[in-house]
From TrEMBL:
Annotated binding of Fe cation 1, by residue: 83, 122, 125, 228
Organism domain of life: Eukaryota
The family this protein is said to belong to: Belongs to the alternative oxidase family.
Key words of the record: Electron transport, Iron, Membrane, Metal-binding, Mitochondrion, Mitochondrion inner membrane, Oxidoreductase, Respiratory chain, Transit peptide, Transmembrane, Transmembrane helix, Transport
UniProt protein name: Alternative oxidase
Membrane topology classification: Multi-pass membrane protein
Cofactor binding note: Binds 2 iron ions per subunit.
Amino-acid positions noted as binding Fe cation 2 in the UniProt annotation, renumbered to this chain: 122, 173, 228, 231
Gene Ontology annotations for the cellular component aspect, listed alphabetically: mitochondrial inner membrane; respiratory chain complex
Transmembrane portions of the chain: none
Signal peptide positions (record): none
EC numbers: 1.-.-.-
Lineage, uppermost ranks: Eukaryota, Fungi, Dikarya, Ascomycota, Pezizomycotina
Any one GO MF annotation of this record: metal ion binding
Length: 280
């Protein structure tokens, strides 16, 4: 092994540990806005389960009818449908905040870049899974219909209450983490034999910079699940903030400025706390 490769793997170690340690989690609904968001996600989840022939019991459940046993093909169908929907909110939210910033001649405080980054990340999930299957006309029609309904509905909802929408996405991402966790369990328990030796698509290897020896389907699912957990935290946090005035704490610009201020405080003693509180 080349020294550079071993260095890269040792640096990747902590990241790998984080990816492996992702857990399912649920944020309790605390007010009526949270309940609206959670109720909407549960309704959507029911629809998605119905469309993709999915039940949340483990694949080993003996009472489960054959039609609900998840195969590799059914998982991919579910992933594609899930990701085609998941790619919408970040783009809609980013676009609406962009337009508002222009319209009102005011700053956005760093939210847009994170929202567009999320949309890009979800599209990469979709494109990765599309390397593994050729969707038929039924699937294409379903995605088309879902996109039309979800894009329209989410756009209107975001104009009315962006806070509820971020909470909604937070709950949606909780479900995504649960879904990928279950797929990983199915794979580990030998119910998805076609994926045991399958290598991740080249596009995925490049996008996540998957290290050699960790480019299998299981690793891919772990990477995607880690992304979903990140979207979960980001959107629940954005849902807690004042949508008009709070800076985005996930913005790279915000983080580097906070870092600089922290260092400056160490050197100079005192700074105006508001000086790092605003983003472009
Ligand atoms: Fe995703
Ligand atoms: Fe996501």
């Amino acid at each position: 092994m080349q020294p550079t490769q071993s260095l890269l793997i040792s640096l990747l170690g902590p990241i790998q540990q984080q990816i492996l340690s992702i857990q399912t989690a649920h944020r309790k609904a605390r007010n009526w806005q949270d309940k609206v968001a959670l109720g909407s996600v549960r309704m959507l989840r029911w629809g998605m389960d119905f469309v993709t022939g999915y039940r949340s019991e483990p694949a080993t459940a003996t009472s489960m009818p054959q039609r609900y046993i998840m195969t590799e093909e059914k998982w991919i169908t579910r992933f594609i449908f899930l990701e085609s929907v998941a790619g919408v909110p970040g783009m809609v939210a980013g676009m609406l905040r962009h337009l508002k910033s222009i319209r009102r001649f005011q700053r956005d405080y760093g939210w847009i870049e994170t929202l567009l980054e999320e949309a890009y990340n979800e599209r990469m999930h979709l494109l990765t899974f599309l390397n593994l299957v050729e969707p038929g006309p039924g699937m294409r029609l379903m995605v088309l219909g879902a996109q039309w309904v979800f894009f329209s509905g989410f756009s209107i909802a975001y104009l009315i209450s962006p806070q509820i929408c971020h909470r909604f996405v937070g709950y949606l991402e909780e479900e995504a983490v649960i879904t990928y966790t279950k797929a990983i369990k199915d794979l580990d328990s030998g119910h998805l034999p076609q994926w045991e030796k399958l290598e991740a698509p080249k596009m995925a290897i490049k996008y996540w910079q998957m290290p050699e020896g960790q480019r299998c389907m299981r690793s891919l699912l772990l990477y995607v699940r880690a992304d979903e957990a990140n979207h979960r935290e980001v959107n629940h946090t954005l849902g807690n903030l004042n949508q008009e005035t709070d800076p985005n704490p996930f913005s790279a610009n915000f983080k580097s400025r906070v870092q600089k201020v922290t260092e400056s405080v160490g050197v100079m003693g005192q700074l105006d706390p508001q000086s790092c509180n605003r983003e472009v």
